[in-house]
User: Fold this.
Amino acid sequence: MWPVREALARRLAEAKNWSEAADVLAGIEVQPSSAGSGEYKLKITLETANMYLEANELDKAEKHVNKTHALLSQLPAELQKKPELLHEYHACWAKVSDRVGKFMDAALRYTEMSRLENQSDAGTMTRAVVCAILSSSVQRDRLLRSFRLDTNVRELPVYPFLEKIEFRRIIRADEAKEFQTFLSPHHVEVRADGVSAFEQAIMEHNLESMKYAYENISFDHLGEILGVSDAEAEKLAAKLIYDQRVQGYIDQVDRFVYFDNVSPSHDDPVSVWNANVISVSHRLNEVVETITKLVEQ
Assistant:
């Protein structure tokens, strides 16, 4: 029955009937005792997930890709290291994670794909950088820094934007618009909460960056800068403080956000010293980057 179902699924896929094609593949039952059954089952499951992704049935795509980790781990050691199979495996995980908004997972998978490609595909690494920027994971800063220091990433058109993000520079509207050329449609699609993944990432980044320029800021002014209402600005600030991505607190009576780590109390010399060291370090990094670019030219 395998060849029959596969042939039917191929014909349905050629006609862009992705959901039906995926359902046909999902119905293939592989006997564990068959020679090569493990690798075949893994490939069919990956293909099924990809077809559900094409059909925009994200729940089913994620359900099938989640099965593949166990299927890969059950293969003989030599097959688990097979580059072509690993590339297919990470590619499927990356695409599904990207579409469902698990951007850090997607960034890590795209990075692994790039490693398997020996950096041959600039598009793969660009997608890794984009997903890392869109992510709100605690791993984000560390991954962005590793990308910024990667000589291969420095050659990518997306690098100047990555640099601004990593150095906590406020992103202007024109810069954000320019960056959209690197995005996929689902990154700019407005979600149920009224903003896109990209808009959310830029607002969060700009708010984080403001802690280096402001001691405090009103909800109204914050909303003005971020391009949202004062209520949305308050909600965003509360989320970042709760996630500990911004150190500070909210005064709902006076309607202000106060940043704890920007202007420490003058009667706390240790805090003042630490803040000055951080500030000097950021400026030193920028100087080093500028000199490095001039030398490379």
